[in-house]
# Entry
Amino acid sequence: MLLSTQYFLLIALLCLPLEAFATTVHRCEAANGRITFTTLGCATDDSLSLQDVRTFTPGSTVALMPEADARETSGMKIKRREPTVVGQTEDKCGNVINARERREAIINQRVVAGMSQQDVESALGKPDKITVRNSTTSYRYDTKRGRSAQVEFDEKGCTKGKAKSRTAKSPR
# Structure
C-alpha cells in the first residue's frame, strides 16, 4: 500500500500544469533607455511593466519571454545610427585596392595601382635593379627571353600604375 501511494504522489507531481512553474518579473525602463529585469521593484523614475516568465522545460517550443507591450514603451524615441567599422586599417597607399584585389594580384603575379613595394616584391620577387630619382623609386625586373618589366613607385612607396614591359631590341 505504501508503494502505491508513492507512485500516486510521483505521478501527481509530474502532471502539474506548466503555469505552476511561471513567475512574474518587473521590466524597468530607465529614462536613458536602459532596461532591467528584476523580481524586486523598480527605481522611482523608471517605467514599470510586468512580464510573465515561464521556466524552460526541455522539448517545449513556447517562447520563454513574451514580447513587451508596445504601448508601454512607445514613449521612448529610438535613434537609428549608422554602424561604425572598427579595426579597418588605412594603408599608406590610401586603400586604393582592397585586400582581396591585392591578394589576387600577388597570386597572379600582376602589378596593380595602389600596391606597396612590399606587395610588388611578394608578387614578382626581389628586383634586378633599383633606381631612385628625386622622390620616385623604380624596380626593374629582367626576365629570360630579353624582356624586362619596370615598376615605378611614388614618394609614399606606392605603385603609380601597371608595370611597363619592355622588349630588348635584337641585334641585326
Remarks:
- The chain has two domains: 19-72, 99-167.
